[in-house]
Amino acid sequence: MIRQGEVLAASSRAGKGARGFLDRVAHEFLGHPIVVDNRYTRWFRKGEAAIEELRHFTRQFSVFSNQFLVAQLKKMINAGSLEAMRSAKEILANEIGVIFRRPGEEPRRGPARTEEAREREGDPELVGTSGTVDGGTFRFRAGHFEWLLNFASALGLGFNDLGQRRHGAPATLFFCDELIRLYGSEDPDVAAGAGFAIENWAAAGFWGELIEGLTLIKGTWIPDLKLAFFTWHDLVEAQHAGHTMAELELLLSQPAFDREKFIEAGRTMLDGLAVFWNGLDRDRAGGESETAFPKAWAGPP
């Protein structure tokens, strides 16, 4: 996650006029309740989820994972420059199975890794956490959805149980549609605000909380759980968040940059994210309270 100190360092580099804006970014994005206090992941890390709770979580997360591809494709199509298009294309290509590699780097070789090491660090034939997809190898098994399928198989879930919109709860679909609308927006300031918010949420530690709970479950009663989907994302997200800070500094140097639009888009994106996680928290608690949508929504299309 982009720490408060990094925002302040960016403020000093950007000049006096940017300091108030960066203070607002730190307060409204990095201090958003769903970033600093996610009730669902705080419960999940205890490893107390029952089998049906794990299945429900997996279905909903798989819908989000697949709908992210739609949002990322829109981000690529709506990019404002060739460099931005390539950046979006890197993420999309990696999601569907093109492996990151460092330029000039040969495929990693050496003694075969143990199953535990592959779960923790990734299978070197299928993953990379830095570099570029340019010149990388495509493998079906390197697609992120296939890693999620491997995880779900230990829960008795298969391909037709996951990923499609028909499996999404209303709260999940609300978040996915907000992601497509904001993160994939044609307006560069809206897309930038939503992207900054979502990437810094992803790097804020929620992956670690999920991994902590799943590791406990794997060690006690579901030894066949494959955790690579979660461990890989935990390793790579800090890199993504760092890029968003550099992009924000670049935006601050552009006279046409609309700061209010950036802030509003990021805050709205995090509000939509909160609907997703609070929906999961409500569901695991027995649906005792209704999901509070932040604005009028007619339901899934």
Protein architecture, described:
This protein has a single domain (4-284), classed as Heme Oxygenase, Chain A (Up-down Bundle), CATH 1.20.910. It is built from 13 helices and no strands. The radius of gyration is 19 Å and the shape is globular. The chain has 301 residues and is mainly alpha-helical. α5 packs antiparallel against α6, α7 (115-121) packs parallel to α12 (228-252) and α11 (206-220) packs antiparallel against α12. Residues 1-5 and 296-301 have low confidence and may be disordered.
Output the number of helix runs.
13
Q: What is the typical, i.e. mean, pLDDT?
A: 83
The second-level CATH architecture is: Up-down Bundle
Major sheet details: none
Q: Which secondary-structure class do the elements indicate? A: mainly alpha
CATH superfamily: Heme oxygenase-like
Integer count of domains: 1
> Could you list the spans in which at least 5 consecutive residues all have pLDDT below 50?
1-5, 296-301
CATH class, named Mainly Alpha
Write down the Rg: 19 Å
Sequence of secondary-structure elements: HHHHHHHHHHHHH
- Kindly report the CATH topology: Heme Oxygenase, Chain A
Strand content: under 5%
- Terminal residue distance: 33 Å
* Helix content estimate: 55-70%
Total number of strands:
0
The backbone outline, from C-alpha atoms, is: globular
Q: Secondary-structure map with pairings?
A:
Layout (H helix, E strand, L loop, with lengths): L3 H11 L1 H15 L2 H4 L2 H6 L6 H27 L4 H15 L18 H7 L22 H10 L16 H14 L4 H15 L3 H15 L7 H25 L6 H26 L17
